[in-house]
Amino acid sequence: MTTQKKAGVLGATGSVGQRFILLLSEHPDFKLEVLGASARSAGKRYEDAVTWKQTFLLPESAKDIEISECTVEAFKDCDVVFSGLDHDYAGPIEKAFKEAGLAVVSNAKNYRREPDVPLIVPITNTDHLSVIEEKINKAKTAGQEKPGFIACISNCSTAGLVAPLKPLVDDFGPLDLITTTTLQAISGAGYSPGVPGIDIIDNIVPFIGSEEEKIEWETKKILGTVNASKDGFNLISEEDLKVSAQCTRVPVSDGHTECISFRFKNRPAPSVEQVKESLRNYVCEASKLGCHSAPKNAIHVLEQENRPQPRLDRDRDNGFGVSVGRVREDTVLDFKMVVLSHNTIIGAAGAGILIAEILLKKGLI
Amino acid sequence: MTTQKKAGVLGATGSVGQRFILLLSEHPDFKLEVLGASARSAGKRYEDAVTWKQTFLLPESAKDIEISECTVEAFKDCDVVFSGLDHDYAGPIEKAFKEAGLAVVSNAKNYRREPDVPLIVPITNTDHLSVIEEKINKAKTAGQEKPGFIACISNCSTAGLVAPLKPLVDDFGPLDLITTTTLQAISGAGYSPGVPGIDIIDNIVPFIGSEEEKIEWETKKILGTVNASKDGFNLISEEDLKVSAQCTRVPVSDGHTECISFRFKNRPAPSVEQVKESLRNYVCEASKLGCHSAPKNAIHVLEQENRPQPRLDRDRDNGFGVSVGRVREDTVLDFKMVVLSHNTIIGAAGAGILIAEILLKKGLI
Amino acid sequence: MTTQKKAGVLGATGSVGQRFILLLSEHPDFKLEVLGASARSAGKRYEDAVTWKQTFLLPESAKDIEISECTVEAFKDCDVVFSGLDHDYAGPIEKAFKEAGLAVVSNAKNYRREPDVPLIVPITNTDHLSVIEEKINKAKTAGQEKPGFIACISNCSTAGLVAPLKPLVDDFGPLDLITTTTLQAISGAGYSPGVPGIDIIDNIVPFIGSEEEKIEWETKKILGTVNASKDGFNLISEEDLKVSAQCTRVPVSDGHTECISFRFKNRPAPSVEQVKESLRNYVCEASKLGCHSAPKNAIHVLEQENRPQPRLDRDRDNGFGVSVGRVREDTVLDFKMVVLSHNTIIGAAGAGILIAEILLKKGLI
Amino acid sequence: MTTQKKAGVLGATGSVGQRFILLLSEHPDFKLEVLGASARSAGKRYEDAVTWKQTFLLPESAKDIEISECTVEAFKDCDVVFSGLDHDYAGPIEKAFKEAGLAVVSNAKNYRREPDVPLIVPITNTDHLSVIEEKINKAKTAGQEKPGFIACISNCSTAGLVAPLKPLVDDFGPLDLITTTTLQAISGAGYSPGVPGIDIIDNIVPFIGSEEEKIEWETKKILGTVNASKDGFNLISEEDLKVSAQCTRVPVSDGHTECISFRFKNRPAPSVEQVKESLRNYVCEASKLGCHSAPKNAIHVLEQENRPQPRLDRDRDNGFGVSVGRVREDTVLDFKMVVLSHNTIIGAAGAGILIAEILLKKGLI
Fold first, then answer.
1. Tens of pLDDT, residues D169-214
2. pLDDT given for residue C1 in this prediction
3. N or C: chain A end with fewer CB closer than 10 Å?
């Protein structure tokens, strides 16, 4: 407990920020110390500034924290800063924080495509953090100050897609075709305005702005590799892997369902049983490292024919575990299956916390 | 009006039967005369026997009809019989009706795969009715009585899939790969028990029994052709066309949304604009024949990026028109798009009525 | 048809304005000529300016109308102006229109409490329009120009409450206690922002700003009488009638359900059967006048124990009829019952249209 | 741990039974030993017999238990038996268990109205358990075996109503008028059939069979007193207290919302602030006894104007705490307010567990 790291939250009054705060309260590794929000909120007690909209109560420990503006000065003593900033604001703030030597774990999309910024699903591609490790080691060797960095959380629906595919790539080699049709919960759209109620009662909205492009691009980075010099990433080329996403919004509060299909490059493809076996046996690095929030099972393979279902399965391993069901052969590609992931936990704020736990275990914060 | 045909409804108290009755009340071509249900209901006034669950009121004209048992004797004077029977009961009853010379339009799945039974989406493959025409003509030539027949309504989610694909096949040649992920409304599951409320509030059920198999098989019959001797159908072979469906149940009352993708056999594939043009220009035979329920537009091509949506678009052309949106290129197959169809109208009872209207216009009833 | 009156709509791009436009397209009495919206929209074609969100398509006849600013000049030739303006804007605009001699039927709340402005539920208290009639007659007698006026549409949940109570007051004398707990649909909250989806999936919000006060006050005006000099209204005093409302928002798209109870001043109270008989026999003035949109039955008395239900009953008489069920004795007051009314038809835009039809039949526009 | 009591569950495969099992797994006081179900399930492993429908996984400890028939013989070693039996079966079974000397805590309605059976809301009227205590003491004094008994869990919506009223009665004297309009979740209706999905999407059902009668009757027993001889209860008479309920089913998974109003017999009535103070200060006996599941706060008084809400507030104190909001004066009675209670926890299975914990602390099992 004496070694708790100091944590800050950018965008503290927003919905991602609120979830960071919930997950940080009573966290063994981190102590919430600084909350940053807009100039309008700065100076107020957190409880007075926030419109709290979570199913858990506002933690006592956060109520009285005085909100700061999102300046380096205010966060300079933080060991790690979680950013729940809207992408309209995240760009210059996160850049300034990084340049000031701070460790930033961000849910914003602004730097996901930067060549040296790891884009992390914490149950999936934590080897990508070696790019940060290398940067820190180089600085150390050169006798320089520990450099700041940004580690990005992936898009929520990307997380659900790659989580079960990565173990399969590890065991059976690369994929060359992936399709996903997503049925996404509304909590991911935030609150003001988010998804209007009249759009989502007795209805489906078959479009989410930029979502399909995010999935299609991010998958190629996350399933890609760290390059040899460890200063960036080899994205999988469009030639080697085609990803096609169709995204819809559905009347579900939490939990993204995805109907996915995929094809392996190598022939013969594994059997259905081999695929399930691979998923069942998968243990993520966060679990091996003993991280506090790491799921007992990163991937749950369900055998009932009508699962996973968001209401019943989204809270597996407190939302850090992903559920897979209906693994079966596909006549068009090799396999099809249904994946369920908790969009605000493993797909957003929770992922940020687990990334930070891994960074801590690896000695990077 | 003097020429109204006499109509009967089998399974009159069930949800499909109720919709047949609604659509037949005040119909210019048909007069509802006989209602068949189980022995338990037989002898009662319809109003007393039915638990009416429609948004329109029980038509006055149906209230006092005395329910019959589902026997040939009771329906022998009907020019056309609409069957909303559950498949557990439909088999022997529909067979007996056909053998007795009656014209049966059935929503049950029992005879859909029979080699000489047309499986019809009435805005799509009405040319398949020539098999019935041929049979009647042969009997006439042979001086025999007009033979009975069964014409089957397709599965609801099959209808939404093939409706926009058939015009494309007509214009650009065969498809060799089709995928669909369906987001299906609950009204199609009927009422007792149907989909339990607790399964569908804030939830998705990613499984519908036998639905994927139905779509995958029926598509090959509907997109297939009448054989040369006109006594049956050439199904498209698995080699020539692969269809892959993933079916989910969503919290929507009426209207199936499908995210589909497909590939043409011929290269080069048409452009997005050509695809949309083809769909916009499509006029179904029912419209050409001037059928009462035929949609003004069988296919509506929507240009707004977030349409079609079930609550807003399901009632186009009284549910007989299908809406298509988000037509765009697909990296894995050629195109992807979103289709919306009203599952209880063009996907079930409404289809039956329109099939009968077409049969009438063709002189087959 | 040659006598169609010229109609304008204020707030034409908003959700109430859109419904006015829908109801005016193909209306036999009115011809839509002028559409008013904010300066930002003015000058655009209506189709280009509006985000159309109705289940019926944007009428062809409205698409090309060029939007005007909400000035008297633009609307000066209108025989009637329907106002769907937000109350933030309605005040000065509606006042100016009235002073310029225009006939305004408004959905805004701004002038509902004015002593000389009738607050009308068009199936309920159309006798209140005599205040306008008197004003016009006086001007005529004095040789003055026909004066402008405002007629206000009641709050949506007030409409559902008073509609079945007024016939009872007519038949059995005054009420002294009324309670209502409302379960209100989200369509009434409009669109930007309206009710956020995340607030209403798997949830109830037991509060609607100012709604309870509106119901409690408006009921006393609507159930009150025109004063002797016919220049205003006698509100029922708090001493004579106490109204208590509890308002909630529920996951329903259209249709307000209200669980109401009430007590008559006179003893003995009527029987349940007498109450139902009174409701069944009620014929509203709009029906007697033969108004185009008048419901066949203003009040539908349902006998099934689990009705009315919004999805099944909201569209009775195209939304102009109110449904009442579960009429039974109450141990605390005299009676309790469940009322269902379509909040955007009889509770908003539809009411405005029907009010205008009545004004027309009475020769007031 | 060495003193864990042996627990059995009747109706173990049903939805109430499943929740008993969840709450008993890892319970410090009770060890689940016997599961009873129908003859059809008897002999099977629990995991094989049950269709598990909970958001938490089936506890490992229950999976392998062999299901017994619901006979005294099978349960004879149990210190306490929780009954989740349907009322169609509960009558003779629970009676036999009681007569055999077993302690039964039942969710069925069969014996709630028995003069000597306590009807308990465990955060409300635990003093009523003295009737059981007296019976046991008498037997002890007479040198007889410890007698069996039944303690009944109240109806779910009764629990939400009386929980906040009891502290007020304690502080300010009796009530003479109570009204409640309930907005009830669907989980309480169970699963086969429960509430059909098509009835509850975009809909309200304003009727729940027998529910209003249960609330109106049970309130008078629960707010009543133990009689002087401690062998039964003084129900409040209809003359002294009138209760009127209107019950509706709403599209909410868990959590009953009730809009209640009430009047005190004594004048002057307390102030709003006094009412809130009384509710805030209330500490239930279960908390004083230190029961494992006792809520930290039996009553949460919320000050935000739009709370409580089911999705946000139902899980307070793991569902054992009741939330109250919008306490305000009522023009018809004295006060009105909104109450939220978790229908399957404090309104059903959870109540049973907490009752048993209290019985244990009192030395009655």
1. 999 999 999 999 999 999 988 766 689 999 999 999 999 999 999 9
2. 47
3. N
Task: Answer with the residue of higher pLDDT: B223 or C193.
Answer: B223
CB atoms within 10 A of CB A53: 16
Selection from B328, B285, B319 nearest residue B300 by Cα: B319
- pLDDT tens across A180-232, in order? 999 999 998 876 668 999 999 999 999 999 999 999 999 999 999 999 999 99
H or E stretch including C287?
helix C285-288
| Amino acid making up residue C35 | L
Q: Residue C147, preceding bond cis, omega within 30 degrees?
A: no
pLDDT of residue A189: 82
DSSP code at position B212:
H
Strand partners, D323: D300, D340
List % helix, strand, coil for chain B (3-state, nearest 5): 35, 25, 45
pLDDT digits (tens, 9 = 90+) for A148-179: 999 999 999 999 999 999 999 999 999 999 99
Q: Helices (DSSP H) in chain A: which residue ranges?
A: 15-24, 46-49, 60-63, 72-75, 87-99, 130-141, 156-172, 197-200, 211-222, 272-281, 285-288, 310-313, 349-361
Give backbone dihedrals phi and psi of C75, rounded to 5 degrees, phi first.
-105, 5
- Among A123, A350, A179, A157, which Cα is nearest to A252's? A157
What does the pLDDT read at residue D192? Answer: 63
Decide if pLDDT at B13 tops 80: yes
Using only C-alpha atoms, chain D has a radius of gyration, in whole angstroms, of: 20
With CA atoms as reference, report the closest residue to A22 among A67, A50, A59, A64.
A59
Residue type, B274: Q
Largest CA distance in chain D: 63
Task: List CB contacts (< 8 A) between B201 and chain C.
Answer: 202
Calculate Rg over the CA atoms of chain A. Answer: 20
For B5-155+349-361, the fitting CATH number among 3.40.640.10, 3.10.20.30, 3.40.50.450, 3.40.50.720 is 3.40.50.720
Contact D179 C179 (CB under 8 A): yes
Catalytic residue among A27, A128, A256, A342, which? Answer: A256
Token reading at C55: 């289940």
pLDDT exceeds 70 at position C2: no
Candidate from B201, B202, B311 with C-beta closest to C253: B311
**Which residues in chain B have Cβ-Cβ distances shorter than 8 Å to C55?**
311-312, 315
Domain definitions of chain D by residue range: 5-155+349-361, 156-341
Q: How high is the pLDDT of residue D115?
A: 96
Q: How many CB atoms lie within 10 A of CB B161?
A: 31
D324 — contact with chain C (CB < 8 Å)? no
As for the ipTM of the complex, it is 0.96
* Nearest alpha-carbon partner for A291 in A9, A81, A30, A10: A30
Give the alpha-carbon dihedral of B334, B339, B345, B351, to 10 degrees. Answer: -10
* Shared fold status for A5-155+349-361 and A156-341: no
Q: Other CB atoms closer than 10 Å to residue D164's CB: what's the count?
A: 28
3.30.360.10, 3.40.1390.10, 3.40.50.2000, 3.90.740.10: which CATH number matches C156-341?
3.30.360.10
Question: Could you read off the pLDDT of D46-98 as tens digits, one per residue?
Answer: 999 999 989 999 999 999 999 999 999 999 999 999 999 999 999 999 999 99
On chain A, the residues whose CB falls within 8 A of the CB of D54 are: 312
Residues 6+ positions from B162 with CB-CB distance below 8 Å? B121, B124, B125, B154, B218, B219, B222, B223
Best CA proximity match to B217, nearest among C299, A331, A336: A331
The answer to whether A78 is a known catalytic residue is no
Distance (Å, whole) CA D75 – CA D69:
9
